Amino acid sequence: MIQAPRGTFDILPESAARRKVVEEQTEKILGAAGYRRIETPTFEATELFSRGVGQATDIVQKEMYTFDDGGGRSQTLRPEITAPICRAYLEHGMHKLAQPVKLWYLSSCFRAEAPQRGRYRQFWQVGAEAIGSDAPETDAELIVLLADLLDALGVKGTRLRLSSLGTPQTRAEYREELTAFLRAHEDELTDTVRSRIDLNPLRAFDSDDRRTQAVMRDAPLLTDRLNDEDAGHFAQVRALLDDAGLVYELDPTLVRGLDYYTRTVWEFTSDELGAQSGVGGGGRYDGLIELLDGPPTPGVGWAAGVERMLLAATDMVPPAELVDLFVATAKPDGRRTAFELARDARRAGLQAQLELAGRSLKGQLKHADRIRARFVAIVENGHVALKDMASGEQRELNAREVIPAIVRGDRSL
Ligand code: ATP
Ligand code: MG
Question: Ligand 1 pocket, 305 CB below 6 A?
Answer without folding.
Answer: yes
